[in-house]
Each structure stands twice: as C-alpha cells, then as structure tokens.
Amino acid sequence: MVEELVSAGAAVVAVGAVYVMAGARVIKQYERGVVFRLGRLKDSVRGPGFTMVVPFVDRLRKVNMQIVTMPVPAQDGITRDNVTVRVDAVIYFKVVDAAEALVAVEDYRFAVSQMAQTSLRSIIGKSDLDDLLSNREKLNQGLELMIDSPSIGWGVQIDRVEIKDVSLPETMKRSMARQAEADRERRARVINADGELQASKKLAEAAEVMSDQPAALQLRLLQTVVAVAAEKNSTLVLPFPVELLRFLERAAPQPTVQAAPAKEQLPPESGRGESISGQD
Fold first, then answer.
1. In this predicted structure, which of 96-105, 149-158, 240-249 has the lowest mean pLDDT?
2. pLDDT in tens, 193-221
C-alpha cells in the first residue's frame, strides 16, 4: 500500500513538473507577451522575465518592441512636372502597444510596408523633380505624416522615414548636365564682365592721376620694364609713349636764340643816275 502511495505521489509530482514546464515562459527584455485565454485577450501584457501560462488554455504571443528598419521597394512614378523617376526609401518604426499590434491588424509589418509604398507613390506625384533632389527633408516629413496617420490605430509608431535614392532616365541626366554646364558658363561670363568693369574703372582713375602727374607714367613704365625683365626674355620690346617725350621736352632747358647781324648798306655808286656824255 505504501509503495502504491509513493508511486502515485511520484507520478503526481512528475505530472506537476511536466505541467509547470509546459506553462513556463521566458520573455526577453525587448519583448512583451500578449496572452490569449481560450481565444480571448487578457488585459495585462506580460513584461520581460519569467512568466507562467495555463497549458492548453493560454496562448502566449511575443511582440518585438525594438525599432524595425524596413526598406521600401523602389517605386516608379511621374512627378508633378511630368518627369519619370524611380524612388526608394527606408522606414524606421516600432511597436508601442503590443496588444493592438496583434489584434487591430493581421500582420503589422506587411501593413506598414504596403502603406509606405502607397504613400511613396503619392508623394512622388505631388512633388516636383527639384523637390525630390534638393528638398528631401520636407518630403520626408510629409511621407512620415502620411504613414503615421493610419498606423496609430495599429499600435505602431513611425520613428523616421528617409528617401534613399532618386533614379532618373539617361536622357534627363544628360539634359540636367547640359543645363548645369550652361549655368556655370553664364556665371563665368558674368564674373568676367564684372571684373572687366571694375578694371576699367580703376584704369580710368589711374589715367586721371597720370594726367595730373606725368612723372607717374614714367614710373609705371619703369615698373613694366622690371616686370618684363624678370621673365628673362632675350628680346624686350619697350613702348615709348608720346607723353614721356612731352615730359622730357618740358624738362629740357630751352637754348638762347642770338639775333643775326644786320647787313651793311653799300654807298650809292657815283655817277649813278647821271647822264653819260657821248664821244665826239
């Protein structure tokens, strides 16, 4: 009899151990446990650590609460200015309500992925090409708002959305390259013309100074000679301005002019005007 009781006790202990082992669960730090008892959601969400469920009655579903990085497949679209582009993005989201993520939507990952693709195509059609290329911060905010609005009821929070790349047709790339080259050439011409204008103004001011002080022109000429001589050329062509000649003429002493001596008047010849007598 005692042996039967001992055997029965050992069997009960074994069954209890198996029951406990069947109901024991371990939830990790970054997870939350949602318990369904006979298909009905229990109000409390199990936190991280060791927990127990009723075997064959309760069903524990673990939900990852970490931030999920999900790439959005590239979407083809036409911008508002009728340019065909191909845009891909990446979305960062996390679950903030584990119960809603399991009950409100069948598969929250698939739902967020589809919503991101739809919103990306919509944002392409509402934007210009220049906005897609240079104003991505504003588009990212608009895209995040479009995805976050319906996902609030799913227990999911959109953390960030980033447009990764914008692919353009080859013809559009060549057109943009020509446009950029023309714009750079235009800016170069404007800068060159502005430099010529400033140089002409400075040269006009220098000409006014040199006209007041002719010696400045000679000094400038000597500076030009020094600059050319530094190049070690074998032949030196030196311009000789007319103003320098005038300066030298004014600086040279004027020679004194002597008066020419007056010519002596010869006395009138005798007999001039007298009549000559003829011979007998």
1. 240-249
2. 999 999 888 888 888 877 777 777 777 77
**pLDDT for res 239:** 64
In degrees, rounded to 5, the angle at the alpha carbon of residue 218 between the alpha carbons of residues 214 and 219 is 110
Q: Which amino acid, residue 276? A: I
Name the nearest CA neighbour of 32 among 46, 18, 42.
46
CB burial string 96-119: b at 16+ within 10 A, e below: ebbbbbbeebeebeebbbebbbeb
Q: Which residue, chain included where needed, has tokens 């010869």?
A: 266
Residue 270 has pLDDT above 60, yes or no: no
23 C-beta neighbours (distance < 10 Å), count: 16
Mean residue pLDDT across the chain = 80
Determine the Cα–Cα distance for residues 46 and 54; give it in Å rounded to an integer.
Answer: 14
Q: How far is CA 51 from the centre of its chain?
A: 53
Q: Which two tokens stand for residue 126?
A: 């509402």
221, with CB counted inside 10 A (0-12, 13-18, 19+), is middle
Inter-residue contact 157 to 98 (CB < 8 Å): no
180-218: string of b/e by CB count within 10 Å (b at 16+)? eeeeeeeeeeeeeeeeeeeeeeeeeeeeeebeeebeebb
Question: 0.90 exceeded by the pTM?
Answer: no
Contact 48, 141 (CB under 8 A): no
Contact 132, 75 (CB under 8 A): no
DSSP 8-state symbol, 86: E
